[in-house]
Amino acid sequence: MPLSLHPAVPSDIPHLTSVYLSSFAQDTISTNCFPRSASNTPSLASWWTSSNTDDQANQPAANYIKVVDDDGNDKGSAEKIVAYAKWNIPPTAPDGSLIGGGGGDDPDDMPTWPEGANVELCAKFFGTLARRRTEIMGQGAYCYLEIIATLPEYRGKGAAGKMLRCGIERADELGVSCYLEANPLGRPIYEKFGFRVVGEFTLEELGHVEYFMVRDVKAR
After folding, report:
1. Rounded to an integer, what distance in angstroms lies between the CA atom of residue 211 and that of residue 199?
2. Are 100 and 139 in contact (CB under 8 A)?
């Protein structure tokens, strides 16, 4: 199954939502912040699609990329998106300088969560991530991997590596560092790509550990 990397376009967003729901169906944080049920899941899907559509249209730093199974196209079927990522890449100001901030949630202006969400848990977990990112990275320019998701049946086939290298290479071109958050399963994968742990946060309610990781600026 040959996989190829492409920019995601607005019409892809509902498909990215489907990838997210499948990828995070067993994830402790996702299922507790956004409980799945016959009534909640459609609301979550609608909210996720709307949020990402708005981010893609209105956040200059937001760069959505997708990985496609090219065999689907060869068979004449609709394009099959098997993974996606959202990299926040610093845009360029008119004077040629990079605009800092890193994109992502503003710790002082968090989203309105979807119907059925555990609002208190969302506020604590995602609010802490946003605050810590700001504390660690400041307001300078850096690339931030906000989310990466792969369909379960395509894990271990190279999709995540393609998306990671895409953002890392762009960071190296710009001469900036990279930042992401990772759970214990993801940490060793990111370490292979040059990231290091600079902090961590334990969500006591779920016994969940989240690592804050940075890949330093590489010489151009």
Report:
1. 6
2. yes
